[in-house]
Structures are given as C-alpha cells and as structure tokens.
Amino acid sequence: MTSEFSALLKRLRREANLTQEALAERAGVGVRTIRGLETGERADPRVTTVRLLADALGLSPEERERLLSTAVLRTPDGEVPDGRVPDGRVPDGGGPAEPPVPPAPPTAPEPTPSGPTRSPLDAVLADVADQVAQTVAARWRREEEQRQVHDPYPLPVRWRPVAEELTDHWANIRRLPPGSDPAPLELGGQLDAIVDVYRRIPSGRLVVLGRSGSGKTILTVRFVLDHLKAGGRADAVPVIFSIGSWDPTAITLRDWLAAQLRRDHPGLAAPGPGGTNLAEGLVETGRILPVLDGFDEIADGLRRPALEALNATTLPLLLTSRPSEYAAAVAETDVLTSAAAVELGDLTLDDLAAYLPRTTRKARGRSASGWEPVLDALRERPRSRAASNLATVLTTPLMVTLARAVYSDAPGGDPAALLDTRHFGTPEELEEHLLDNFVTTAYRHRPGSGPLRAWEPERARHWLGYLAHHLNRLDTPDLEWWRLGYGMRRTTRTLVTALVIGLTIALVDGVVGALFDSLTYQLLDGLVAGLLTGLLFGIAYWFMVAAKDAAVEPSAVRMRIRGGERRTGRNPLRRLVIGALCGLVFGVGYGFVRGVLNGAIVHARLPAVLAGSIGDGILYGLMFALAAGPTFGLLTLFETPLDIRSALNPISLLRTNGRTVATQLLVWSPVFGVLVGLGSMAVVYPAAAVLGPVVWNLTAALKLGLISGLGGALGYVFSLTSWGQWTVFSRIWLPLTGRLPWSVVAFLEDAYRRGVLRQAGAVYQFRHARLQHHLARGPRTPHRAPTADGARTVDH
Which phi and psi (to 5°) does residue 119 adopt? Predict the structure, then answer.
C-alpha cells in the first residue's frame, strides 16, 4: 500500500524527468530502494536516504522539507524512532546519521497505514543488503565488459534436465505435502531465462552441471545480474562465492559465507544487530542467496563432507560443478536435498557459424571472414581428422573465446591453422595450442593501447606461471594479494620477514643514531640492533602467524583522527593489556641479549654479565611495556569500520589498507617514541635505587625514543599487518628472486585488463581454472603455426 511519501517521491521523480535507475545512480542508492519506496514496500526510509534523494532531485527548500516530513515515521506517542529527527541530524548534533546498532526488535510491532512496521534490525539489514546489491551489480557488469561477453553478443548457453539419479524427489523439490502429485518441472532453457527457470523451483535449490569451459561461470554472472534487475527489495541478494576454497571440516557453511562477505566487503565486519557483525546478520536472516561456483574445485577428500554440510542446511542456493565430480560425491552420500539439476549442452555448428565470423574485422573488397574456410570444412568434411578434432574442441564457450582471441582479435591470425593435423593431431593438442597462444596473444604489442603496459610475453608468462603455481600450492582459485608470499614454506617466510625487518631497523638505527654518536660506532650499533630486533620480530612472527599457517588478514578498519564516526566496538583496555604484555616480552628479550653482548664486548666475567643482562632486561621490559600498551590502546580509539563499498576490487582494498597503515605509523611512531623516551627516564632513576648505578641521560632517552618510534613501528608493520607482508614478499622478496615483476600492482591490473585475470570481489582469479592449471605446469616446447600471409608465428 502506497503512502503519502511514496506518492510524493514518485511525482517529484517524474517532474524531474528521471527514471528509477537514473535517480538511483544520482543519489548513490540502489534501484531496489527506489522501487521499494515508491511502491510502499519499504515503509520506514532512513532520513539520510531521503536527504540523498532530495539532493539528487534538486528540490527547493519547501519541497525538501515536505519530502522529509512525510518520510519520518512516528510511534503512537509521537516520538521519532531510532533517535531520528526531521532535519536528518543525530540527537547529539553530529554529522549525518550512520546506521546505528539497533535495539532488539519489538515482540509485537504495531501496524501502520502503509503496512506492518519493520523492526530496527530489519531496517538496518535491509539498507545494508541494498548497498551490497549495488556493489555486486556494478562488479559483475564490469566483469562482463572485461570478458567481452556482449561483443558481439553472448555465446549461447543452453541446458537440459539431468538424469534422475542426480536430483532429489520432485515432491521434495516442489515442497509438496504427502499424497500430492509430484510431476516434474519444465527446466529447459537458455542464458536469458536462467532467473525464470530458477524461480519455478519452489525449494530455491538448483544444481548446474557442465564440463570444463561450458559456460557455468558466465551463467552465474548472468543469473546474479538478471536476478538483481528483476528482484524487489525484499528478495535475497545473489552473491557469487568460489566454493573451491571452502573446507567444510574446518568451518560451517554459514560461517564461511560470512567470512567471504567480510573479505569482499570489509565494511560488513562492523558490529551489527544482536551482537553479531553485519555479514553474519545478512547470512542468518536469509538476505544473501549463495551462488556457489566450482563445487568440482573443492579438494577430492572434501567433496563428500561438503555435500553433507550443504544438505544440513535449507538455504536456497545455486551450485555449479563438473558432472563427474558431482556424481562421484552423490554416489558417496546423497544428492543435494530438494535440489533440481540441469546440465549445460554443447555449442552447435550453427552457433559457431553465427558467432565466429562476426568477431573479425570486415576486409575491404570481400565479405567472407577468415573463419569461412574453417566452417566450410566442418560442414563439408565432418568426419575428416582435422574437422573432427576441431569440432570436438569448439563445443564449449571457453575454447571458442580462446580461438576468437588468438585468431580474430589478433591481426594476421589465420584460423585455418586449426586444421593443421601435423601440429595438432588430437583435440587435446588443439586445446593446449589455444591455451598456449592465448597468453602470447594477450600480451602482443598493441600500438595506441592506452593503459596497457608493454610486457615481454615470455616474462609475463613466467610471472603468471608463478602465480598459477602459487594458487595450486595453496589449493585455491583466489589470488589474494595479502597471501602472495604464502606459497613459500613457513620457515622461509619467517626468515625473509626477520631479514627485512633486521635490515630496516639497522638502517634506521644507523641513520638516526649518527645524529648522536660517531658514524663508526653507530654502524656497529645498527648491526647489533638490526640483528636483535630482526631475531625477536622473527620469533614473534613465527608464533603469531607462521606456526598457525595463517595469513595476516587485511584490516577491516580505517583510521579517523576527526569526525563523529562509529567506532569498531574494540575494547581499548584489552588492547592496552595485550600491547603492554608484548612490549614487556620484547623489552626483556631485547635488554637481556643486549646486556650479554655489551658484557662480552668489555670481557666482563660471567656473573657480572648475567647480572647486567637481567637488569637490562627488566629495564627495557618496563620501558617498552609502558610505551606499547598505551600506544595500542590509543590506536583503538581512532579506528572506525570500513565503508561497505570499500573493497570494490583488490587494488582498492590494498590502497585502503595502505592508507590505514600509513595513518597508524603517523600515530604509532611519535606516540611510541615519546612514551619510550619518557618511560626510560621514569624507569631508570627509580630502578637505580634497586639495581645500582645506571648510565642514562636525556640524550640517551631521546635517541632511544627516536629509534624505537621508527624501528618499532616499521617492525610491527612488516610482520603483523597485511600491507606490510605484501611489501615484504610482493614488493621486495619475490621481485628480487625473479618470481614477480617489481611493479606487481601494475602487472596484476594489466593482466586483468587483458582478460587473463578476472576480479571476484577483493581477489583476483585466473580467467578460467583450466588456464590456471595449464600455466602452473610451466612453459612448453615452442612450435610454429602458419598465419594468413604464409608467415609463421611462434607458439610459446
């Protein structure tokens, strides 16, 4: 039922000559939000949303006030709920209202003229789901453009029902009561009908089977975009999850879904209703429709427990897999409960004849394309060895798009080379040829190519091969920038981290200390300090990160010095205690080892060395504990959750974390340095009464404070932040050892623009799992294939 606000918003939009889509884009809200507000489906809009709409419509002050006044819902006693006020300010006079942590929902909400009142919990999660829907839609529209899905048009993807033994009983699929007629549903269709087919299934559970390259991922992307376009605000938001990285024996499905949401949308880690975070709230309330892509990519021994875990839930979902892997899992346990299943079919010769000629440039003076002789051979000599091999290969969208990239998009390519049985005697050799040449073609020199870098194809293939091998080693399709060094052994990672930190602190100690002492002495002191701190940070890294075989995850917070932003809910006191304990352990170890070395330098006797070392350990332990605790606690006060849209792609997440770390350094370094300097003065003189005379003065305190502030901050960043680990491995070690280029970010972004990589939320993936496994095997022996002018090109 529409309300006064709904009718007014619709009238104002029409007067502004805007469609719902145009208004949504101007206001930065979702189309589903506009649709829900105009139909009355959403009866309680947030004032901040209404203000965005008023700005987008360019309303006069009078129209703006009227729109706001009609939007504000009041309780029966006349109060504005959730602390909202008509002018859109929060009660304390701060900035625009952020989504609050709402109170528990009322047990019996009162109805309003426009429908039942939703609880504050529902309102917050509905707004969050709408923002996730906008991000998801933008992400996959961009991905379709990058993969040239609509150039010149999407390849046909058709499907048919599968064998009965791979589906559940129709009575279960249709949710029928006992005794009803379980007639099968009509599930055949093609790409533009996938949402309609899915909605015919009352259980909301569909399995899509298809062999490698048959178009399963293209289908999931189209499903997400069409579902978002056709759905209402109350519908669950379809989100694609690469299920190959799920270990069902270690984490439940719902927890894994929430973790993936937090990774791709770091803002969803913010505290949400009911004591959970926003990601968990979306999953638990059914506002996310999981689209689980790549069941066949789950490790062999985990497919059965994965299917059993899926059957333990009633979540609506769409699952994709290769047929053999799914059938094997079904044979071990059972079909996916209440799920219908379809299987993707092959492309036909008519599909190829309609598509391939339209992918080439029109040649002057002739209407036929280079594909015509190939298509003629497939029609006229289908049983010949050459035609039979090629027809077998060109039955999947993956191989057709690779053939198009190699022979249509690249100048001078002659598709007739695909009929050369001397070089390609089997279908497998043809497929390897297309996979080999795809990378070479993608990295060919393109005059006027704009942002594309001129990478040497052989070098690019070498680096891509390392990335593919890295993913195979980790057994995941997700190329996470914060884990690029994690394909190495844990001991190697620890040694590299300790080495980089040691060299960095030695440099800091040498440069800063030279302001106070002679250069010769300070170089020696820097080497000692670098050795000790590298060793201690290496030990800390081993126990806190490497021994757990875990990665340092990107931070879900940012640093805000000014502004009334929401806090993260982290306890500063708890962080203070943890920081103090870490500082104590570090200081005791550092002081003790430094005391031993000083005693050895002056050739002191063992009892004196031990006594001095213990005394130094106590002193430095107290100094660093008194400094590290308050510094960590202070950092917590400046942390605020990331925005929900903060991880539109991997590079934006990397840059966001880089800015967070830079701000942490600006806070950490001076605060920690000052506290170490002041703490040393506060600790040394009282300690002298107990430990005996201590050589210390203001200059020594200033020197220690400067070196500790810079060195301690850099050691923490390099060992215990995701950006620091990225710097250690991806910007220093891997390029230094030749496994990646020095400009890793530019290389990854360039590979994405060339279509070799794709983006899936906050991570990269290879365009197809088949390409990843092919590149991971390393370079092949090159051979040559003829081009259109009779020349020969090298197949790398």
Answer: -70, 160
Query: What percent of the chain shows pLDDT beyond 90?
Result: 24
The H or E element that residue 522 is part of is: helix 519-544
- Burial class of 288 by CB neighbour count within 10 A (0 to 12, 13 to 18, 19+): buried
Helix axes 31-39, 120-146, angle to 10 degrees: 140
In angstroms, the first-to-last Cα distance of the chain is 65
Contact at 8 Å (CB) between 278 and 267? yes
- 661 pLDDT more than 70: yes
- Residue 99 CB neighbour total at 10 angstroms: 21
Report the C-alpha gap between 205 and 214 in whole angstroms. Answer: 21
Q: Are 708 and 670 in contact (CB under 8 A)?
A: no
| Structural contact between residues 392 and 427, judged by C-beta atoms closer than 8 angstroms | yes
Contact 709, 680 (CB under 8 A): no
Three-state DSSP class for 246? coil
DSSP H/E element including 753: helix 744-753
Which candidate, 339, 139, 337, places its Cα nearest to that of 238?
139
3-class secondary structure for 164-218? Answer: HHHCCCHHHHCCCCCCCCCCCCCCCEEHHHHHHHHHCCCCCEEEEECCCCCCHHH
- C-alpha 627/C-alpha 631 separation (Å) is 6
Confidence of residue 780 (pLDDT cuts 50, 70, 90): low
More confident call, 351 vs 589: 351
Residues 6+ apart with CB under 8 A from 4: 70
Nearest C-alpha neighbor of 329 from the set 356, 355, 301, 359: 301
Query: Quick one: angle between helices 31-39 and 20-27, nearest 10?
Result: 120
Q: Are strands 205-209 and 317-321 parallel, antiparallel or unpaired?
A: parallel
* Contact between residue 440 and residue 795 where contact means Cβ atoms under 8 Å apart: yes
Instruction: Compute the distance between CA of residue 488 and CA of residue 492 in angstroms, rounded to an integer.
Output: 6
SS3 state at 111 = strand
Query: For the chain, how big is the Rg over CA atoms in Å?
Result: 31
Q: pLDDT digits over 12-32, tens only?
A: 888 888 888 788 878 777 777
Q: What residue has token string 């579902």?
A: 227
Greater confidence, 364 or 500?
A: 500
3-state secondary structure of 107: coil
CB contact at 8 A, 132 and 237:
yes
Secondary structure of residue 265 in the 3-state scheme:
coil
Query: At 317, is the pLDDT very low, low, confident or very high (cuts 50, 70, 90)?
Result: very high
DSSP readout, 757-794? EEEETTEEEES-HHHHHHHHT-----EEEE-TTS-EEE
The dihedral formed by the CA atoms of 91, 92, 96 and 102, expressed in degrees to the nearest 10: -60
Q: Are strands 340-344 and 205-209 parallel, antiparallel or unpaired?
A: parallel
Q: How far is CA 556 from the centre of its chain?
A: 12
Three-class DSSP labels, 540-596? HHHHHCHHHCCCCCCCCEEECCCCCCCCCCCCHHHHHHHHHHHHHHHHHHHHHHHHH
**Percent helix, strand and coil across the chain, each rounded to 5?**
60, 10, 35
Nearest residue to 474 (alpha-carbon basis) of 212, 734, 328, 297 = 297
pLDDT score of 114:
41
Number of H helices, E strands in the chain: 29, 15
CB 33 within 8 A of CB 233: yes
H or E stretch at 321: strand 317-321
**Residue 221: which pLDDT band, with cuts at 50, 70 and 90?**
very high
**What is the total residue count of the chain?**
796
pLDDT attached to residue 251: 92
Q: What is the mean pLDDT of the chain?
A: 80
